[in-house]
Every structure is written in structure tokens, then in C-alpha cells.
């Protein structure tokens, strides 16, 4: 598992936020889910989460609106690169059309793909995997490739 050099933090925004950190080699370092409960706590979280992620160079955010603003401000304050997209951007590259017909189907297939990414990366296997963390993992792998850190998605993931 990679733990040196550049890092990318992937954030699946929401009151329940999924987080995933990737190394320059494209492999997942760690992932988790956080329930902030309300927008006030979520707004305050951006600073501490970025600190926790280590030597982050890029923060990739899935989502927008007022819930993204504290993240964008903190990323800009630190001079980090920002990649902000909607779920449809990464899903079209990682999931088949039939796998993303609706939200529940997309979340189910993202969970399966996230588990494959965890194994490929050699990251700690989950006892349970919340859908927001699974989506952050999938989105993060997509973002790593978008950054040019991976030439292609790893074989064996089915993408």
C-alpha cells in the first residue's frame, strides 16, 4: 500500500460524507465515512479532514451547492488543486448504463467496485462499507486517473 508522496483526497459530499485517500501510484491508502449530522458541523469539518489526509495535493469533490463551499474555500486557502464534479461524471466511466439506472442500483454497483479497489490497493478490508465511503473510493480512483496518476484503470476491476 502506498503511503508516500503526493495524495489525492476524494470527498463524497453530504451530511454523511465519504472520504478516500489515494497515493500517487493510484492505490487507496485509507477510506471512511463520517456523519456530521448538520451543515454547521459539516462546514467545520473541511479543515480537519484535509489535515487528517496528510500531504494532500489534490482534493476531488463530488457534489456542489452550499454544502461544497466550505471545502472549496479551504482548498483554495491551502493552494491545493480542486477537481469538482457530479456523480454522473465518474459513473459513466466506471459503471455500465444498466448499473446506474437509478440511485440504489448505482450505489450497489459502486459498493462492489469499491471492494475490488480495496483488494487491488491492499488496503484494510472493511467490516462494513457505507455507500458514501464506497462512492468516495470509486470516485477517487476515477479522479486519480483524471489527474494522470494512472494511465488506465487496473485490470480485474471490470471497468
Sheet-strand content, in percent, reads 15-25%
With helices defined by DSSP (H or I, 4 residues minimum), what is the helix count? 5
CATH class: Alpha Beta
Strand pairing plus helix content: what structural class? alpha/beta
How many structural domains in the coordinates?
Answer: 1
Question: Sheet bearing the most strands, described?
Answer: 5 strands, mixed
CATH architecture: 2-Layer Sandwich
Order of helices and strands: EEEHEHEHHH
- Would you give the CATH topology? Nucleotidyltransferase, domain 5
Radius of gyration: 14 Å
Shape: globular
What is the CATH homologous superfamily assignment?
A: Ribonuclease H-like superfamily/Ribonuclease H
Q: Indicate the low-confidence ranges by residue numbers.
A: none
Number of strands: 5
Residues in helix, %: 40-55%
Distance, first to last CA: 21 Å
Overall mean pLDDT stands at 87
Amino acid at each position: 500500500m502506498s503511503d508516500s508522496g503526493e495524495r489525492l483526497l476524494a470527498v463524497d459530499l453530504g451530511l454523511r460524507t465519504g472520504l478516500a485517500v489515494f497515493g500517487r501510484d493510484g492505490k487507496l491508502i485509507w477510506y471512511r465515512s463520517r456523519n456530521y449530522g448538520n451543515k454547521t458541523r459539516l462546514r467545520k469539518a473541511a479543515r480537519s479532514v484535509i489535515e487528517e489526509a496528510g500531504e494532500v495535493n489534490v482534493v476531488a469533490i463530488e457534489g456542489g451547492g452550499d454544502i461544497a463551499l466550505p471545502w472549496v474555500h479551504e482548498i483554495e486557502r491551502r493552494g491545493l488543486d480542486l477537481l469538482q464534479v457530479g456523480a454522473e461524471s465518474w459513473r459513466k466511466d466506471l459503471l455500465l448504463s444498466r448499473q446506474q439506472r437509478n440511485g440504489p442500483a448505482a450505489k450497489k454497483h459502486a459498493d462492489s467496485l469499491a471492494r475490488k479497489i480495496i483488494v487491488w490497493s491492499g488496503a484494510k478490508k472493511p467490516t462494513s462499507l457505507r455507500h458514501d465511503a464506497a462512492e468516495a473510493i470509486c470516485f477517487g480512483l476515477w479522479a486519480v486517473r483524471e489527474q494522470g496518476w494512472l494511465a488506465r484503470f487496473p485490470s480485474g476491476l471490470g471497468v
